[in-house]
Amino acid sequence: xxxxCDSTTTAQSGDRENILGxxxxxxxxxxxxxxxxFEERVNLLFVSSEVPGTVHLYTGQEAVAVGVCLAIRPDDxxxxxxxxxxxxxxxxxxxxxxxxxxxxxxxxxCRGYGGSMHVGDMAYGMLPAIAIVGGNxxxxxxxxxxxKRLANGKVVACFFxxxxxxxxxxxxxxxxxxxxxxxxxxxxxxxxxxxSTHVKRVMRVExxxxxxxxxxxxxxxxxxxxxxxxxxxxxxxxxxxxxxMGPALVECETYRFVGHSRTDPGLYRTKEEVEYFKSxxxxxxxxxxxxxxxMATEDEFTEIDQSVERELEEAIEFARKSPHPLPEDxxxxxxxxxxx
Length: 340
Prior knowledge:
Blueprint: H1 7-12, H2 16-20, H3 22-47, H4 62-71, E1 77-79, H5 85-91, H6 95-102, H7 136-150, E2 156-161, H8 168-179, E3 184-190, E4 193-194, E5 197-198, E6 219-223, H9 227-245, E7 248-253, H10 271-278, H11 282-292, H12 298-321
Parallel strand pairs: 1-2, 2-3, 3-7, 6-7
Antiparallel strand pairs: 4-5
């Protein structure tokens, strides 16, 4: 259930702060702030035409990416979508390399070949993002099959939106993972809208997680604006998958504060709805939660905020100074078969 961020919510959270500890909670806070500020800077750079192409901002959904990526191991895998920046930041790809990729420079995480909708880095356990809606779901199942066959103990976390859960690829990928007990956690970021269409117009069940029953796997719905709730649900699902018990579907009820893409004014949403979810900003909620528990001071939060700004300034400068690809680079990494 989606709850308001207030003192009651904090009190109901129990002893999770003490169990997770100050180090993890502040790491969650910093990663969410880094993802948020990265998006805000990218938006300005796109408007000023320094960033080419288009962008699909992740603003508002940071608790999902951070909660998931801190719940799995660093050597585990993730697959992403057309809205991948937050996932990449949470998985640990350096923001200087992400920024350079958006600038289409050779120092980018995909050497300038990918751009906004295809960021990723195998070295950090993130496949280059797949922009086709639902396209990464069967890929995640295939990657999980490889992990199972190799017996490497790794788990795959697959991000997708509520709209993707109505795609044929969702059925095929989840069903395959279920019948073969593959080590994958399917993470649905339900931000209520598939582009501009409300989720209630495209499905009859109450929650996306209810669809898990059709595949004989566990399904759970959590507050996607609560990074701790996301972390706990995914940690449990990942442990289950790693032990050979197969996949699970974790639905995170979240909200994007911006339009579907940079050119979308979001007129299909009411001002009251947007303001309600902004009042539940996951970053502000976590900050209040940690402060109320007496685990960090305002000076500590300020230092984190300032360190994030310094990191982003360096990343932008790095991207601006990085070289552009050469025309002949388009022939690199291309398989050319021999005739005859």
